[in-house]
Amino acid sequence: MEIALLGGTGDIGEGLALRWARDTDHTVVVGSRDSEKATHRADDYRTLLDERGVEHDVIGVDNETATERADVVVLSVPPEYAVSTVETVSNGLTSDDVLVSPAVSMDRDGAGFHATPPEDGSVAQAVAGAAPDVPVVGAFQNLAAGALSDLDTELRTDTVVTGDDPEATALVRSLAEEIDGLRALDGGPLAVTALVESVTPLLINLAMNNEGMHDLGVRFQ
Amino acid sequence: MEIALLGGTGDIGEGLALRWARDTDHTVVVGSRDSEKATHRADDYRTLLDERGVEHDVIGVDNETATERADVVVLSVPPEYAVSTVETVSNGLTSDDVLVSPAVSMDRDGAGFHATPPEDGSVAQAVAGAAPDVPVVGAFQNLAAGALSDLDTELRTDTVVTGDDPEATALVRSLAEEIDGLRALDGGPLAVTALVESVTPLLINLAMNNEGMHDLGVRFQ
User: What are the CA-CA distances from residue A205 to residues A113, B136, B217 (Å)?
Assistant: First the structure.
């Protein structure tokens, strides 16, 4: 299977790319608006995985090409670019693809971070509005980017997967669980994704306010 | 110290009463609108703790008397009664007391449970608006009532404590951590409590959608 990470050159995209490349046989397609940046970043990821003696299959291309190739497209871009990125790559999307929304909209004031969901209710629902013919799945919102991209960190964390297409959500849950130490839980339909997205600012507030806590994830038990 | 649980005859109030009675030397004051109901319920709790050979100090009185006696007052009532309960007991509240808000406002539709915070932003902030002279602390929102009130269940769960008065939040964190297996984290000021309250409908959705998961709590790690 080919998994594209649009915006796969930064933050959560880097960690997902490295983990999928290390832990699975899938082809990881690092996408960027700038194909040269994508190529360079894919080189970096390959070097890092080579140093660990890990077999991998990572390529870097522009977002449009990444979308055309891939079966699963992860929108690992900042939330304000989620909808515009979908619009940019829409020619490459078909109803057989799965679009994954890991972005979270939040802002910060003196009290800390707050959730600032878009009018649609959640970033995932805004993405679904922009791609009405493609199954959209919410996932990976609550993973700590730092822990994810540090392959020496053993994960023991959950991701909540939401969506309205049972096949698509099952596929994303399965891809998530192929990452060592990641457990994927069924959060229900896309309409309740706001609850998942709002865990992320909570995690940041907890990291800010509690000594010794950083790169926090969440575990439901 | 005396801890009052207003609405301590049901749900989360029962579990907190039993756990504090079992795990600490504090006086647990079970409050209810109906003093007879409070007395009976306190009897039940004492019987249950006696059967376990646990020393305890539990009494049952009406909410007003409970508030007058107690140093810490937990509003373990349904969210729609949180503000009216504060108004009822306000004569017994002083600025030396601490008011704790564990309630969560949510509703359910076909997709599952959603957070429905009041206009103030969170139940805790609505409570603070109704008791402007008393330090208000948000805590205990994400505990599973079933697990909490079953003393055979070993907790291994977190509660996020929010508030604007450092002494009051420190006191509530300390009381929370006196319950075996409960870890209290600093969530920041009261203004970010909505993030904590919205974890509760997420926990219920996860319990509904994932086989073998029930009485879920949350752990940040």
Answer: 6, 19, 19
B214 touches chain A (CB under 8 A): no
Which tokens sit at B49? Answer: 């703790």
Element housing A86 (H / E): helix A82-89
Whole-angstrom Cα distance, residue A162 to residue A150? Answer: 26
Return mean pLDDT, chain A: 97
Report ipTM (2 d.p.). Answer: 0.97
DSSP B52: T
Residue among A195, A201, A206 whose CB faces B220 most closely: A206
- pLDDT per residue over A52-83, tens digit each? 999 999 999 999 999 999 999 999 999 999 99
- CA distances in angstroms from A28 to A25, A76, A180, B15, listed in the order given: 9, 13, 16, 48
Taking CA atoms, A55 is separated from A1, A184, B86, B194, in Å, by: 16, 24, 62, 44
Q: Indicate the residue of A111, A189, A220 with minimum beta-carbon distance to B203.
A: A220
Percent of the residues in chain A that have a pLDDT greater than 90, as a whole number? 98
The interaxial angle of helices B199-209 and A199-209, nearest 10 deg, is 120
Distance from the A211 Cα atom to the nearest Cα atom in chain B, whole angstroms:
10
* Cβ-based contacts of A216 with chain B (< 8 Å): 220-221
Tally C-beta pairs within 8 A across A and B: 126
Task: State pLDDT tens for residues B202-212.
Answer: 999 999 999 99
Is A58 within 8 Å of chain B by CB?
A: no
Q: Where are the domains of chain B?
A: 2-209
Chain A residues close to B210, C-beta within 8 Å: 185-186
- pLDDT greater at residue A183 or residue A9: A183
Query: Homologous superfamily of A2-209 in CATH?
Result: NAD(P)-binding Rossmann-like Domain (3.40.50.720)
Task: Collapse the DSSP code of B37 into the 3-class scheme (helix H, G, I; strand E, B; otherwise coil) and give the result.
Answer: helix
d(CA A126, CA A82): 8
Q: Partners of A2 in the beta sheet?
A: A27
